[in-house]
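=== RUN LOG ===
request id: a7f3
mode: sequence -> structure
chains: 1
length: 521
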Amino acid sequence: MTHFDYSAEQYEQLISKLNDIGISLSAEKNISRLTERIVDELRSFTNADAGALYILNKTKKSLQFQIVQTESLNIRMGGTSGIAITWSDVMLELNGKENLQNISAYVANTGETVNIPDVYKADGFDFGQTKVFDKKNNYRTKSTLTLPLIDHNRSVIGVLQLINARDEAGEIIPFKTEFETLVRSLASQAAIALENAKLIADLRNLFKSLVVYSSKAIEARSPHTAGHSGRVATLSKEILKAINRQNDGVFADVYFSPEQIEEIEYAGWLHDIGKIGVPEAVLEKENKLTDDQIDIIRERFLLSSFYNACYDYEDGRRMEWSDFKNSFHHYWKNLLDELKYIQKINELNFAKDHELKRIRELARTYYFDFNGKRHDLLTNFELENLEVRKGNLTEEERKTIQSHVTESYRILKAIPFMEDLDGIPNMVIEHHEYLNGAGYPYGLRGDEITLQGRAICVADVFDALTAKDRPYKKSVPLDRTLEILQNDAESGLFDKNIVDLFVQEKLYFALPGFRKKINKH
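=== RESULT ===
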């Protein structure tokens, strides 16, 4: 088919194709892919060898290159090509030399469509840069069709330029005038699709800003966990990207779309949002008992020594000060030894049976005041905290901490996420589930846990181990952390394939400053 002398049937086919392209473009929400497809589709529609798309920058009063394509030179720049366009913007004002204007700038300023059969024979426009490009690349720019991208407000938002239309034999021909209306119609659809995609991108950027801000605001309650959610987001995203790179093995047929990778990044940022309901006293708990609570025990021990010394002389005989002092020092010395032991147990991360036995025996000790009222040396609350075998949280406090998972889910479930982000709540509620069923809150097993949930779990544990010192633990060295991850994967807690990939590809170096941190240590 040539570009002229169309029959009614051929015209109908063109319009049908035009509609199909318009529908296809409106379905694309990624701006990079969309701008690329606009040029691809319009080049295909007109059989043009080359094309460029510019976006208007109102602040700078310029057109910025977004896509550059030249089929015969095998050039594809911008969009998803991975090749950045380094060319300077096209300024909208006249060049000040011969009062000539770049043709794209003219179209942006006027909103007109300009069809030129041969740019080397055209007057009134500045084609200096075009000729420089041609000479450098042994190319010959001839026919061009330059048209505006106009939004729903009838404002120009960009410019599309098509270069060198070809006939069926590949010879360069002018863009036929009967094509202009169809192409301009398609350009209008493309502009609206681009405007919608930009609106969605702006909404997503706003959403991401709110997510990051909310996460940082919650983490600000505890300076020891600052940056944790951001690092989990980065590591989770890197795990999915690494899975995509696998061409063999268990992940060979697994692929996560860009939207799914974005989704897990958000899930990483939001995985601890439920901690907003956890009391700071629990979040920041350094030892089993606070310094103030230890001081209260100390005062109670002093009172016990005083009352016991007094009762040594309760038969009514005259009390000598030296006798009382000796008696008091006797009781106080014994209790001071017990106090030192309590302080030791208070700071232990792992307590043994015999160590806890001594605490329980002390808790059974009591004294009486002058009114005959009995006082225990340790309260039930103090005993409950000092009896903690691992870490510093009581069972009730541990449940409070663990409740952040279901609380996160409850908060996130109430958010009307976009369709491609609605999996975030389920990923978040899985990030403490283990493959062997020992996790929480549901005790899920194996394939009941999504790959995304397993990825966040590994990222979360890695950062919790390697992060700077926290109130309840010291930072764990990298080699020891990786050993812990691998051992726990072998025992069935984590996905072994994910851990192996994480270790082999050293995904932790994706964290900003992590390599420097390791080298420092």
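=== NOTES ===
Residues 177-219 form the longest helix (43 residues).
The radius of gyration is 36 Å.
=== END ===
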